[in-house]
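ok here's the first one, seq then struct tokens
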Amino acid sequence: MSTPAESKARDNGNGDKKPAENRTGAAPVLWFLALVFTATWGVYLLQIRGGLRFDTDQFAHTPAGWLLLVTWIPGLAALLITAVTEKGSPGRVADRLLLRPGTAGPYFLTVLLVPLVYGIIHGASWLAGFSQADPALGALNAFSDDPQDLTSLFTVMLPASMLLGPLLQFVYALGEELGWRGFLLPRLMGLGKVPAYVILGVVWGLWHAPLILVGFNYPGHPVSGVIMMCVATSALGVFINEMTLRSRSVLVAAFIHAAVNAQVQGIWMWLFPETNPLLGGSFGLTAALIWLAVGLLCARAVTRLEARDREYARYDTAAR
């Protein structure tokens, strides 16, 4: 049984229970943000000075080497700062960064749910007139020696993006998620769930800002693209945050992030190559609203599961 002091340390005043160890000072968070943004934006700016742009070619090739480096900057910063605060204890570092697999359920849910959500997003964008479908797959076939059709798109490419895509993207996603939801999210939760989610979403969006200014995700919309990216990452973040906190696993967060990347770079960009990036597509307002709805439904489900868990624990305690 907890003492009153311990109970108070786990409650942020809004009814959200948090581990007492997550209520740390601001210094580690500020150091983390300084390291991550200085290093990441430095690498981005070097690439941009070297001629990197995305607005001249929607499908511009991104060198895998520097992409891996950049995606692991948040993770390396999280590992470094946590190692200092936990005095180098590997077990405590792993525990603080939620480095545990969790149960199998969230992984199976992700494999099925994320492609479904992106199907709804792109279908809604098309129906709203924000994108145009290309059933002939002209953009894809322009890059392929073996002509593709809708049958191969949905029977080969879609299953591959669902099953293999998250595995191929996982190493990149883990680098980011160690920072975002392994390190930063638990330390922001002392502010309350809503402020924590908003701050993390904005940080995640601004982290991409230099690339968006040269056409990434929102070609032709540099400033409004940065704003829309913050909206999109905040909306998507609600779902990932809820799944992470429920599972207490950053590996779950990384798998969801990897599945999202696999769908964003999968069949939908070929089936709907012409899109208003601010309103439609994978990062526009339509996607943000749908992901926000999915996240809120997930939050409601998590609340019910936690209430059930508390009820079971109460009965178990009474039986003893």
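and now the second one, same deal
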Amino acid sequence: MVQYVFGCLVLLSIFGCNINTQTFATNVDFTPPQYISHDFSDANTLQILYSEEIMLTSELMVDPDIGVIPQATENLVELSFSEKPRAGNKYIVSLEVTDSLGNRNRLHIPFFGINERLPRLIISEFSPEGSKNNPDRIELYVLSGGIMSGIAFYLSHPLENDPDYIFPDIEVKAGEFIIIHAKSQNIPGETPEIDNKSVASSKGTHDSAWDVWLPESPGLSNTTGSIIITEYPRGPIIDAVSYTVKTLDEAHRYLGYGRKGDLELLEYLVHKEHWQKQETPIGPHLAIFSELSTSTRSINRYSDRDKNYVDSNSASDWYIVPNRSSSFGERNNPDVYAP
């Protein structure tokens, strides 16, 4: 009995409820409102969804401070910012909500400003078997113009990791190429290009393309990897590819992959409809088979008869070019490598 009363006193101190131990109601709701999700309704308004009807307390802050006008309606908190969040910049909103019984939930939610002028992009070429003279690179092709501000680039799961790169304010036009250098050579000329395509001059650059470098210089995996670009960190996927040298092994716990994370990332891309589930099970046989790629035999996206890049979100969109036929910064070489 003493233990039971002590438990009631703990609940009282946490939730601020008046409890009579002789008439304690077992069906009293002590569960705080549960956070469900958050997203922008427009570039200046963030909406936060809860599991039940809530009220805002006075504890609300945005860091960095951009001014905020809050409103709570039923189970939705709407935050309208006095200053529009800058695309690609990280902010943290701290707020506390309470339900009708006084149960409280305090959260710290990170979010990023969104880009209202997103270009349409497609991954058009990549080289996971780089060398000193031909480093690891990824090429993006601009389908329609816009500004790259805040677009996130990943070589890993976008919901579990920080981006490998967040693009700065590069104004791009339809028909242009962007070369992402995944492995730095630490030599002069590795200058990221923001407003001039002729600044960079190191190996693997192109005067007609925008050249940028991944800050941590991770390189591409030469066995299994994914390349993902999103509208903003942890945002909607713009384009993605998956490649591997592994083959399907249904007796293996990861179906032939060396790591559980490789399988989970492919499953995620299939779930998001950015890679086709042509057959079951989901496994390495659905990814681009990259074993024959070398530092000069890059992996390229096919074009149709009208020279438009083919995009069915599957391995069949891709081929490997012959020796010394990589074409970063230009239209893909149409020749296919024959072993």
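notes on #2: The helical segments are 2-15, 260-271. The chain has two helices and 20 strands.
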